[in-house]
Design goal:
By secondary structure, this protein is an alpha+beta fold. It has helices at about 1-25, 35-40, 45-55, 60-70, 105-115, 125-130, 145-155, 160-190, 195-210, 215-225, 235, 260-275, 280-285, 290-315, 325-340, 350-360, 365-380, 380-395, 395-400, 410-415, 415-430, 470-480, 525-545, and strands at about 75-80, 100, 120, 195, 435-440, 445, 450, 455-460, 500-505, 505, 545, 560, 565, 570, 575. Strand 6 and strand 7 form a beta hairpin. Helix 8 (about 160-190) packs parallel to helix 23, helix 9 packs antiparallel against helix 17 (about 365-380) and helix 17 (about 365-380) packs parallel to helix 23 (about 525-545). The relative contact order is 0.15. The structure holds protoporphyrin IX containing FE and 2-acetamido-2-deoxy-beta-D-glucopyranose (3 copies). InterPro entries: Cyt_P450 (IPR001128), Cyt_P450_CS (IPR017972), Cyt_P450_E_grp-I (IPR002401), Cyt_P450_sf (IPR036396), Cytochrome_P450_monoxygenase (IPR050121).
Length: about 575
């Protein structure tokens, strides 16, 4: 009797369990292609993704989706990267099982720019930053609160400040890098060395000058007592035997850096660990307990609060003083706003602190990664490197004649279309932010297929360096040519070809897809600063050095996807350019 009851219950349970099983399988959106076997797995695309990642060192999530687009022969696909059963676990609110990926610029442009009311900020970038800067505007939907916070940044992002006040500081930082590299070059005697750390520190010191002012770092140098890198005796003595094994990389001792820089590096590194986490809040609870991170956050908070206090004091002393950094702009903005609204200014509010902190984490890594990729490409494409150097020499005749580097004023006041073109092409290939996404805030459609509210729409344009036999790109764009006809030749997008950006001798912004800084109202507000830093770095280095080829084993294109997408290897082998012939 009892056995029978159990059997009945067991039999009754089978359909129930089966129904639960079915409900936990991915629920594809009708009409949008997907990988059929992924839809039959509780883990969705995860097993196939893991296999893909393990097959080749340059494979990434992006190459997975682009190869899937190729297989499915569609510019719009859906993937299932988040198992549905996760949503049964407590405390996981951000699981969004439906993800549509766009591989076509015309469709992406439509979604991100023209239909930005239907598709707004998604939680994915924010998830990396939620614990660090919860009040930063990056998390907000595009509404009045966002607008008000963005306005706080306006002065600091304006041309007057960037080109007038900040540019000389950025130029000075780039010159300092050249000095350090000349020293290193003398010691290395044309052996390669890794340029990564120097380039990230260059970008970090640029963004620190933007945030806290050009004077900020001078104070820090005194604190640390070094400032510049002094290659040690040891590296000169033992490290570099003359002549023999000239492919062996030189290792320079790491420069001693100020605490605030170490704090930025630590926070950004942790941010990278949080990228793509299925359970960002849970992960955050784990990482925030680490002593190193606690230290870094304290250093960051103390610095930000101290610099706000200094800016308030300066403004109290003189209301007419021109703001010399982002913090001073923001303090002035808050004072004016408070006056208008008849309230007391709140200089140390969580919003102020999180907006300022936001400048100091991750943004330097995007810029630094761009420079790292850039010097790799230019090393491996010497004809483009030479053409760019030529364009610079033609663009800065006075500097050439006087045998000195171009000044930042010259850089600022001279249009060199080929420099713009190379910078743009580097960004197109490097795509340091990996891609952008949005979330549908209403039930809507894409290319005629229903897309319900909550769906994540990601734009991961095919990575030109790694994939896309040209026919694919062509096929993809033909499919969606009904939306918007592109003016460029898609079959050519797989090549690194700066000339594409030049039309009738002028730089042409519409020559190819541009997504490195995002698209639409939520695109990156820091891009003017980023371009300035990237160009100053390119000009200073190429003006002074020839980038010689590095050995193959140091010239890999593997990526590390952390807070940004960066090269695993970034070696340079420098030959200083002697300009005595110009006499
Ligand atoms: C090469 C350098 C950089 C790259 C490639 C980059 C890329 C991006 C991308 C892709 C986004 C998301 C855009 C979207 O969703 O449409 C973004 C957002 C943002 N970036 Fe950048 N960025 C860079 C440098 C900077 C710098 C230097 C700053 C500031 C100092 C900055 C501040 C921001 C902010 C505040 C947002 C959020 C905007 C919002 O949510 O409204 N970025 N960036
Ligand atoms: C804007 O959106 C955020 C959520 O992203 C919300 O917290 C805030 O209250 C909204 N502000 C307005 C004015 O609707
Ligand atoms: C840079 O150019 C802008 C105009 O485009 C000018 O207002 C600014 O003063 C220049 N800055 C420098 C440092 O030459
Ligand atoms: C391109 O599309 C055509 C049909 O539209 C198809 O026959 C061909 O196989 C596709 N090529 C590739 C490489 O996907």
């Amino acid at each position: 009797m009892e056995a029978l009851t159990l059997l009945t219950i067991a039999l009754g349970a089978v359909p129930t369990l089966y129904l639960i099983y079915l409900s936990l399988l991915p629920h594809p959106l009708p009409g949008i292609p997907y990988r059929p076997s992924s839809a039959r797995s509780l883990l969705g695309d995860i097993p196939a993704l893991l296999t893909h990642l393990s097959t080749h060192p340059t494979n990434t999530f992006t190459t997975y989706t682009t190869s899937l687009m190729r297989q499915l022969d569609s510019p719009v696909i859906q993937i299932f990267p988040r198992p549905r059963f996760l949503s049964l676990l407590p405390g996981i609110s951000s699981v969004k099982p439906k993800v549509v990926v766009l591989g076509d610029y015309a469709t992406a442009y439509d979604v991100f720019v023209r239909r930005s009311r239907e598709f707004d900020r998604s939680p994915s970038i924010g998830n990396m930053l939620l614990g660090f800067i919860p009040r930063n505007h990056i998390h907000l939907r595009t509404n009045g609160t966002w607008k008000a916070q963005r306005r706080l940044l306006l002065g600091a992002m304006g041309k007057g400040f960037l080109f007038g006040v900040l540019a000389p500081v950025i130029g000075e930082r780039a010159e300092r890098l050249v000095d350090v590299w000349k020293e290193k070059g003398k010691l290395a005697k044309e052996r390669p060395w890794s340029a990564q750390r120097d380039l990230y520190l260059l970008a970090l010191s640029g963004v620190a000058a933007f945030t806290f002012g050009g004077q900020f770092e001078e104070g820090l140098e005194k604190e640390v007592g070094v400032g510049r890198e002094e290659p040690s005796e040891r590296s000169e003595g033992e490290g570099m035997p003359d002549g023999e094994d000239s492919d062996q990389p030189v290792e320079f001792p790491e420069q001693d850096i100020p605490d605030i820089f170490r704090a930025s590096l630590e926070i950004t590194r942790t941010m990278g660990e949080l990228r793509g986490s299925l359970m960002p809040r849970v992960k955050w609870e784990i990482v925030r307990r680490r002593e190193r991170l606690k230290w870094a956050r304290t250093v960051m908070a103390d610095t930000v609060n101290r610099e706000i206090a200094k800016a308030v004091e300066k403004l109290d002393r003189s209301r007419e003083a021109t703001p010399e950094c982002a913090v001073e702009h923001m303090v002035a903005h808050e004072r004016n706003l408070a006056m208008k609204e008849g309230r007391r200014p709140d200089y140390f509010s969580p919003v102020m602190v999180d907006e300022i902190t936001g400048f100091m984490i991750a943004t330097y890594e995007t810029t630094g990664s761009t420079l790292c990729w850039g010097f790799k490409y230019l090393t491996d494409l010497p004809s483009i490197q030479n053409k760019l150097r030529h364009a610079l020499e033609k663009g800065y005749p006075a500097a050439l004649k006087e045998r000195r580097s171009p000044t930042i004023e010259e850089m600022n006041n001279t249009d060199i279309p080929y420099l713009d073109a190379v910078s743009e092409e580097i960004l197109r290939f490097a795509n340091p932010a990996t891609g952008v996404d949005r979330q549908a805030v209403v039930d809507t459609e894409i290319l005629g297929h229903a897309v319900p509210k909550g769906t994540i729409v990601a734009c991961l344009l095919p990575e030109p360096a790694l994939i896309s036999p040209p026919e694919i790109a062509k096929n993809l764009s033909q499919r969606s040519s009904s939306i918007n006809s592109n003016s460029w030749d898609d079959s050519d997008l797989a090549h690194f070809r700066p000339e594409r950006w030049i039309l009738h001798g002028e730089f042409d912004l519409d020559a190819a897809p541009r997504v490195a800084f995002g698209l639409g109202p939520r695109g990156c507000p820091g891009k003017r600063l980023a371009y300035m830093e990237i160009k100053a770095g390119l000009v200073s280095v190429l003006w002074n050095f020839e980038l010689l080829p590095c050995p193959a084993e140091l010239s890999g294109y593997e990526k590390l996807v952390l807070a940004t997408q960066k090269p695993k290897q970034c070696y340079v082998r420098l030959r200083e350019i002697s300009r005595s012939w110009t006499l």
